[in-house]
Amino acid sequence: MTSDMTARVLRLLSLLQTGREWSGADLADRLHVTVRTVRRDIDRLRALGYPVDSVRGHAGGYRLAAGTHLPPLLLDDDEAVALAVALRTTAGGLTGVEESALRALAKLEQVLPHRLRTQVAALQQSVTGIAWESRGPRAQTTLLGTLAVACRDHEIITFDYTTRVRTSAPRRVEPQHLVASGDLWYLLAYDTGPDDWRIFRLDRITGLMVTGRRVPARHLPGDDPTAFVAARLSAAPTRHRAVATVHASADHVRARTRNLATRIRPLDPTTCLVDASDDSLTRIAQTLAGLPADYSLDADSDVLDHLRATAYRTLHAMS
Fold this sequence. Notes:
This protein is α+β, with helices and mostly antiparallel strands. Helices cover 42% and strands 23% of the residues. A five-stranded antiparallel beta sheet has the order 6-5-4-3-7. It has a four-stranded antiparallel beta sheet with strand order 9-10-8-11. A two-stranded antiparallel ribbon has the order 1-2. β3 (155-162) and β4 form a beta hairpin. The mean pLDDT is 82.
């Protein structure tokens, strides 16, 4: 296609992507061409894979229908900026779509003009939300994007990792999935050193290098990345111990609490254990406060002291 024809067909596609139905005459008027030229351009879009439906007759017209595969989309500047910001927000918030949002964001930012990348960056720096509690440093978007692509392509990466006891060591891993938990991001990967699955907090990763070597995807035990990471996190050592014996069934507690699935263990049909242990005394208090039934508590002395102080302040405020 010539450059003029290409520009016209892209303009036609942009009109069809508004979701409305267009008559041939309306499209011809918008594009400053004849109805016959519109029909030829519609055929060109169909040849490129865009499913354009047409209805014959006086009231007929054209509209873009759903197809069996996703063809390229055409976005104007405002739509591209809005989509990039939405993907950044989704990547930090909604469970279950984080990795897909990051891959889409990486593709979009790769083709954004410089002027639009500047707008997206400015919006990201200027717009924020309310965070009731911060668990720690967040991973950088560039790191998230690079890891998302490496997970998609099953490409070996290397980096330095700082453990919870502040020791650092080089790692060489096969990345598989990114999993968000609260404010924190984790990389689920197969570590070629110990020859086993490991999870890595992204805020402790430095010096990331992509090797360019791709390997076949490994089979993850259980086939559920989120459950695998949750189980590892619940089994990790914590600073403060707090285990509640709850006078309700495990199913009852599980259905009425969030983020506790791997921490609930049934004892009998009417009783279960809930492991509320954590590095944060505040989060332990929040977990216990959210339990939907009476319970007895086995906890460290610092946990009990914190709960007594919290209860005293609450009762004092109510008096």
